[in-house]
Design a protein that fits this description.
Number of strands of chain A: 0
Number of helices of chain A: 7
Radius of gyration of chain B: 30 Å
Radius of gyration of chain A: 39 Å
Order of helices and strands of chain B: HHHHHHHHHHHEEEEEEEEEHHEH
Order of helices and strands of chain A: HHHHHHH
Strand order of the largest sheet of chain B: 3-10-9-5-6-8
Largest sheet of chain B: 6 strands, mixed
Number of helices of chain B: 14
Strand content of chain A: under 5%
Distance between the termini of chain B: 90 Å
CATH topology of the domain at 198-392 in chain B: Phosphatidylethanolamine-binding Protein
Shape of chain A: elongated
Oligomer: heterodimer
Structural class of chain B: alpha+beta
CATH architecture of the domain at 198-392 in chain B: Alpha-Beta Complex
Largest interface: A-B, 13 and 15 residues
Helix content of chain A: 55-70%
Chain lengths: ~190, ~425
């Protein structure tokens, strides 16, 4: 009996294909071919004789051959099993006790650090918003013009119609350019 | 044995090479770690050095089978695997918090800084609470306002206490080893979380599926972890208990997760006593004890050892089930007494004398009790039940209960015209 490669064997195991059948198949075919050859030499072969011989060629499982396809199970489960038991799937990560504790410590510290960072960012935004709010309030009450400047500044009319935000004036990039500001730049002369 | 030591050798060599240089700097830097268990361990190791190792083998370090056998004969089992012990024999035994891994040490620094901050917050919170308590009620804006503010601050303080310690790996390790000190809030918190993850769910499922909750008490929200032991064997909630085993009173392990001491009433109720006359079921109180003190550290309650002249109102009555009757649910309820005040034992004893048809609902209303814990076991007819019933003076031991046979209705053809 020819032994299968470990990859094939494990896959066969996953899909519940009996290995004995798959491995003996070549010899079966050989035997069948020999009988067919003998029969062809002896005389014309009728279809009735050929039918039982052809059945042994079939690679379909007896269960699968039945009407309705047999118990296929859930496709998702099959796929999960396929990838979980595939020999190329790495083994699960296993830590010793202290190693796991160290890992946990680092994880907790990282989570804590991120939480602190988020909180400080949130506080900074809040501070900025409140400063802006206070400035507007000062403009409204303290400028001595009855709030005219404040009303003007709050006016959003024409912001997007007449002119568009300065940020959109040039292509947005991830980082500033290498040499910073190009002071030598001049608009091209029209000729 | 030899291959164990051989296997551990490369590791040991590598450790021995790297540690002596790394250690002194680390020890200087870790002036105040999370906890100082390491020093105690070092001292303990330094002590028995006077005797040779083969005379007094250390169970944490012994690796030769002969010494192991001798230790086991002395009644001390070696700790960990032989491979681990062999590796520990010549390792410098660096305490966990000083392990020389850079990322780990950086992480510890972050956690320690956070802990310092939390401790400062705790101190300031305590000061705030003291200040608010000193303020007279009128200035604080009325009784209700002051009370609610104080409660909120107390809650926040408890939360801070937990947050200060929850990131400590040694706390986690100790808790996982079951060595947590229940007088500290962090261990109580961790134990509570663990209990709620699985065991409380099972308990609640059992007492609701077996209908103890609407039958015995209208409502129960378990907040204490209750374990039940007959002899030394624990009983799962809802398990069938052999009648011979349950002749003696069980032991309870009531784990409280709050601070302070509570006085509780413990009641064991059988809610399935068959009543042939009314073709139904009755209740019977199998045990009742009042004024039982429990706290987070003293959890063990032995129902047979409670004092009979100040606590036990109704002593343990072994549960029985008549042959043929369905299983009996014996539910144990831990009920908190109001404001942890002791009940008047003499009055209770004079009032509660009968066991039959004593409803727990009545007791609950009469003494202002609140169910904080529950447990459940079941009993049914088994091979030893007849003896147990005889010993406890039940009449009609050899009587078997039968379900009333429901006579089938006489056969009648429905609408015979369609059958033709």
């Amino acid at each position: 009996m020819r032994s299968l490669s470990p990859v094939l064997a494990s896959l066969a195991n996953v899909f519940k294909i009996p290995i004995s059948q798959t491995s003996t198949r070549p010899s079966v075919t050989r035997v069948c071919n020999e009988t067919l050859l003998k029969k062809s030499t002896s005389g014309p072969v009728t279809s009735a004789v050929q039918a039982p011989a052809a059945r042994s060629f079939s690679t379909t499982n007896a269960l699968l051959k039945r009407k309705g396809g047999g118990p296929r199970g859930d496709r998702r489960v099959t796929l999960i099993r396929y990838f979980l038991h595939h020999p190329k799937t790495p083994r699960p990560l296993r830590f010793s006790r202290t190693r796991y504790l160290r890992h946990w410590t680092i994880h907790r510290a990282w989570q804590l650090f991120q939480a602190q960072q988020r909180r400080s960012e949130q506080l900074e935004l809040q501070r900025q918003w409140q400063a802006m709010n206070a400035a507007c309030e000062e403009l409204r009450t303290g400028a001595g013009d009855g709030g005219k400047l404040f009303r003007k500044s709050m006016n959003k009319r024409g912001v997007f119609r007449d002119l568009f935000p300065i940020e959109y004036g040039r292509l947005q990039t991830e980082a500033p350019s290498q040499e910073g500001w190009n002071h030598e730049w001049k608009r091209m002369e029209k000729k | 044995m030899a291959h164990c030591e051989r296997a551990a050798k490369p590791l040991l060599q590598c450790l021995q090479k790297s540690y002596p240089r790394a250690l002194p700097t680390l020890q200087v830097q870790s002036t105040r770690a999370f906890q100082t268990t390491a020093f105690a361990r070092e001292e303990a190791q330094a002590e028995p050095k006077s005797q040779p190792f083969h005379k007094a083998p250390d169970p944490a370090l012994v690796s030769s089978p002969r010494l192991e056998r001798r230790l086991i004969r002395q009644g001390v089992s070696p700790i960990g695997s032989r491979r681990r012990r062999a590796a520990l024999q010549s390792s410098p035994n660096v305490p966990f918090e000083q392990l020389p891994y850079q990322c780990f040490q950086e992480a510890r620094k972050v956690l320690l800084a956070d802990r310092e901050e939390k401790l400062k917050e705790i101190v300031s919170m305590r000061e705030k609470i003291a200040r608010l308590q000193a303020v007279p009620t009128e200035e604080a804006g009325g009784e209700q306002v002051k009370k609610s503010r104080l409660v909120a601050m107390e809650l926040h303080l408890e939360r801070l206490k937990i947050l200060a310690d929850i990131n400590d790996p040694l706390v986690k390790k100790k808790f996982e080893d079951g060595q947590g000190d229940m007088s500290k809030p962090i261990y109580r918190y961790l134990a509570d979380r663990k209990w709620r993850e699985y065991r409380r769910k099972i308990l609640v499922q059992r007492i609701t599926q077996m209908k103890v909750i609407p039958d015995v008490l209208p409502h129960c929200d378990p907040v204490v972890d209750t374990k039940l032991y007959f002899g030394r064997s624990p009983v799962q909630p809802g398990e069938f208990v052999n009648s011979r085993v349950s002749t003696s009173a069980p032991k309870l392990d009531v784990q409280l997760f709050d601070r302070g001491e509570k006085l509780v009433t413990i009641a064991v109720v059988d809610s399935d006593v068959p009543n042939v006359e009314k073709d139904g079921f009755d209740y019977r109180m199998h045990y009742l004890a009042v004024n039982v003190p429990i706290s987070a550290v003293s959890t063990k309650v032995d129902l047979s050892k409670l004092s009979s002249d100040s606590q036990v109102v109704l002593p343990w009555l072994p549960p029985v089930a008549q042959k043929g009757s369905p299983y009996h649910r014996l539910s144990v309820f831990i009920m908190e007494q109001k404001d942890s005040k002791p009940l008047d034992f003499a009055a209770v004893k004079a009032k509660e004398t009968t066991r039959d048809n004593k409803l727990l609902r009545t007791l609950q209303a009469r003494y202002h009790l609140k169910a904080i814990g529950a447990h459940l076991f079941r009993t049914e007819w088994d091979s030893t039940m007849a003896e147990v019933m005889k010993e406890n003076g039940y009449a009609e031991v050899d009587m078997e209960l039968r379900r009333k046979r429901v006579e089938p209705l006489p056969y009648k053809r429905r609408n015979p015209s369609t059958f033709r």
